[in-house]
Amino acid sequence: ATLDEALLGRANLTNVKARQATMNTANLVQADLTGAELMLASFYQANLYQAKLINADLRQADLKYARLINADLTGANLEGAELEGADLTSAIFKNTKMPDGTIRNQ
User: Fold this and answer.
1) Strand partners for 2
2) What is the rounded distance in angstroms from the CA atom of residue 103 to the CA atom of residue 48?
3) Least CB-packed of 49, 63, 70, 103 within 10 Å?
4) Per-residue buried b or exposed e for 53-88, using 16+ beta carbons within 10 Å of the residue's own CB
5) Mind listing the pLDDT tens digit for each residue in 50-76?
6) Per-residue model confidence as pLDDT tens digits over 21-32
7) Distances (CA, A) of 66 to 11, 12, 54
8) What is the dihedral of CA 90, 46, 61, 88, to 10 degrees?
């Protein structure tokens, strides 16, 4: 699916299956992506401020320059994801698998 520049703020996208979707520059402010399958998805420059990404599968996702300020990444799998330039200020990490495979809790 191609959702570039989509306005999905506060959208309920729990358990959505959107592998390889492109959501570049999309507005996903406060969107609920709990349990979403987003492997290989592209979120280049997307705004995910306060988004819920609890237990989301973001393996090999492109999150370059995405805004993940205050995003909840509890239990999310970011293995192999690209985070270059991403703003992770105050993001929640609990049992989060990072791009290098390590687990982060903070």
Assistant:
1) 22
2) 21
3) 103
4) bbbbbbbbbbbbbbbbbebbbbbbbbbbbbbeebbb
5) 999 999 999 999 999 999 999 999 999
6) 999 999 999 999
7) 18, 19, 17
8) -10
Q: Looking up tokens 């982060």, which residue turns up?
A: 104
Q: Which of 48, 23, 18 is nearest to 35 (CA)?
A: 18
Tokens encoding 57:
């599968």
Q: Distances from the Cα of 9 to the Cαs of 5, 6, 29, 95, in angstroms?
A: 11, 9, 5, 26
State the amino acid at position 13 in one-letter form.
Answer: L
Contacts of 93 (CB under 8 A, 6+ apart): 73, 74, 104, 105, 106
